[in-house]
Amino acid sequence: MKKFAASALAATAAASIVSTAAAAPSLVINDGEPIDIQIPPGFSYVTTAGGSASTLKVGTPGYVFCANVGQAIATPVSMQPQHDRWTLPTAGDIPKVGYSGGVLSINQQTETSLACQVRGPLGELRSPFSGFGDMLFRDNWEGLLDQQFANLVNWRPVRAFTWSAADWTQVPNDSCTWDLDPNLPVASENSLCAAAAGVRPVAGGSPNDARYGDRAPTMWTLSTTSNFIYLARIDARFGVPNGAPNSHFPPATPPQGPEQASTVDIAVRDAYDSTYLSANGTYCFLRQLPATLSDNVCSGGDVYFSHSLVGADGILSERIPLDVGFTPAKSLYVAVVRQKAGGGSPAACQPTAAISVIADPVVSRHEAGDEFVGDDVVFGFRPGDSFSWMGCVP
Predict the structure, then answer these.
(1) Lower CB count within 10 Å: N or C terminus of the chain?
(2) Residue 124 lies in a domain
(3) DSSP 103
């Protein structure tokens, strides 16, 4: 990848495109672990005439979810991760881009508001720990199957529990608040916690409250005539745990007055298979788990915020503001009703959408915040489908 081919793109843009004849390069974001770059398409860096804006597009065999969280600095460079069939979030605040020795580096040794979550082609992750906290020495490659299930949940399983034949009704459904008896986290995350979790309505005989459902490894989804609907639970906390599990959902009657300023933000982003799904639709925040999914899930008494998907990419772009004095912790459900695009359905064992939470990178780096990142991305499939390591049979 030491050769570049330069070509004019129309009359107002110039591009440097990586040659696809050499060995595959890798991508490093914020001095993190190397990520393979998919060949083709490789990567391209396109600058408009006058240099007022540049776009870096990078194709990967896995999934890269990025956002600007915290105090962003306006820079002319934006990054658009690419994955076959998918539309992924675009992020900016990129003052430094370099390519040397087969490595494309983004913001090397440079602290910005850019933060990303990375998953492999099968939704797997190398380690569930961020590398900024006490769990650094457990940051090694983990296998699939039962170990990857464990990587999805910040929990020390109770005796006799096994991930190879998991009873998900036993798995805590609140990712950031713990009862400590018998549920203990692997990483305590005492400075900042963020999670996007799968959930399902309680099954027969489940000990859990129907308002909060049973934990699940994937999102709850529904495919209707015109729409694909997916739902995840979001948990966020700034500071040490407080209160009981499931105690941080918004009240039925929200407090009056202007929204308080936040000390730290948690970004919420989604991504989707844009061959199968379109940029059009609606999303909403809910106070409790709905009894059923439907085209009308974003209407009703438990919805306290609803909005149309906007922009050419239709990416859900929200934040959860946290402050120790006003809102130290928050839980909610986010539902997306996305219109179908009319293209072909994804192959068996391939996801249709994903939701990610991305914590403020300054807090994560300097205060060991959001140390357990295994629960920061959750994928959605057509009902009954999943990744192959989750049991999907093509």
Answers:
(1) C
(2) no
(3) E
Phi, psi of 165 (to 5 degrees): -140, 65
257 in the same domain as 302: yes
Give the burial class of 269: count Cβ atoms within 10 A of its Cβ; 0-12 exposed, 13-18 middle, 19 or more buried.
Answer: buried
- Decide: residue 119, CB within 10 A, 0-12 exposed, 13-18 middle, 19+ buried: buried
Same-domain check for residues 149 and 252: yes
Instruction: Give the tens place of pLDDT for each residue, 115-171.
Output: 999 999 999 998 899 866 555 445 444 445 578 999 999 999 988 899 988 999 999
290-339 pLDDT tens trace: 999 999 999 989 999 999 999 999 999 999 999 988 889 999 999 999 99
Euclidean distance between CA atoms 119 and 356, whole angstroms: 11
Q: Which two tokens stand for residue 32?
A: 């993190």
125 part of a folded domain: no
Question: Is the residue at 328 inside a domain?
Answer: yes
**Are residues 29 and 86 both part of a single domain?**
yes
**Last residue of a domain, which of 90, 119, 148?**
119
State the DSSP string of 92-159.
-----EEEETTEEEESTT---SEEEEEE-TTS--S-SB-SSSGGGGG-S---STHHHHHHTS--BPPT
Q: In this structure, are strands 377-380 and 277-286 parallel, antiparallel, or unpaired? A: unpaired
104 falls within a domain: yes
